Amino acid sequence: MALSFCIVDDDPATRAMLENIIKESQLGEVIGTARGGEEGTRIILETHPDVVLIDWLMPDQDGLETIMQLKRQGYHGKYVMISQIENQEMVGEAYQSGIEFFIRKPINRIEVESVLSRVTEHTEIKHYLNELKSSLSKLDTLSQFSPNTASSTSIKPRTVDDMVRPIYMNLGIVGESGCGDLTAIMEILLEQQGKPGSFPPLRQLYEAAASRYKHTPREVDKEAKAIEQRIRRTVTTALNHLASIGLTDYGNPKFEHYAPLYFDFEDIRAKMKEIDEERDDGKSKVSIKKFLQVLYLEALDQMKNR
């Protein structure tokens, strides 16, 4: 599957180098180049490339501004940020804006080929999943009109555990005792969706999960404290797992997707440094609330699209 690319960078040497790498490595076709964000926006909206390689710092309009403008105008392709920036807060902001991959300046051919190959793989997987989803939808429609379709052969609805288990696998926490507690909390939150109010306090969630199998106030209180500890250990394990991946392969797709999504960048970086220096401070900082909020949003998204 050959992808189409647009390169937006104010440096002509960088544009030429990226275009040559894409052509010589047979990664796809460059269908447009631009010297700045405003020109890039116009070309991208005209050509609709699969992937946009965009410089962060440009004189007329920076990369993040351009991306937000493109999204507002209906372009939904993939973005690869080209940057020298190392500030983790800014990198985190870029990931939140929709960046999936980074290419560091100065340009390195091996890194460009590696990153764009992963972009191609992700696109092919997404295309395959969309085709599979379309085929299953057609099959489901046909089954509704089939007189021989028995209710016993219908597809079993996905449970909350079905939806979150792949996430647990990618976070490296399948089998951790806190996963059952996380799933119970997701079930509670999904049952309550649409009800007024902001995200519930953590203590309230722990007690709600505990009250599913404990009855007296004392038992519920004791179990809620145990749930809190199990979840904290599980989330810390996820942090350790992602930090270990990032330490060995900073461009790993799992690290690039899950690390900035579930954790603050400074916490990930601190854990990576701790692992690299072969020490364990035993004081890993994690935001349980952020972790639960992100997990809930991903579960909710899967439930709406199932």
TrEMBL record:
<dbReference type="InterPro" id="IPR013972">
    <property type="entry name" value="YcbB"/>
</dbReference>
<feature type="domain" description="Response regulatory">
    <location>
        <begin position="4"/>
        <end position="120"/>
    </location>
</feature>
<dbReference type="InterPro" id="IPR052048">
    <property type="entry name" value="ST_Response_Regulator"/>
</dbReference>
<dbReference type="InterPro" id="IPR001789">
    <property type="entry name" value="Sig_transdc_resp-reg_receiver"/>
</dbReference>
<dbReference type="InterPro" id="IPR011006">
    <property type="entry name" value="CheY-like_superfamily"/>
</dbReference>
<keyword id="KW-0597">Phosphoprotein</keyword>
<feature type="modified residue" description="4-aspartylphosphate">
    <location>
        <position position="55"/>
    </location>
</feature>
<protein>
    <submittedName>
        <fullName>Chemotaxis response regulator protein-glutamate methylesterase</fullName>
    </submittedName>
</protein>
<dbReference type="Pfam" id="PF00072">
    <property type="entry name" value="Response_reg"/>
</dbReference>
<dbReference type="GO" id="GO:0000160">
    <property type="term" value="P:phosphorelay signal transduction system"/>
</dbReference>
<dbReference type="Pfam" id="PF08664">
    <property type="entry name" value="YcbB"/>
</dbReference>
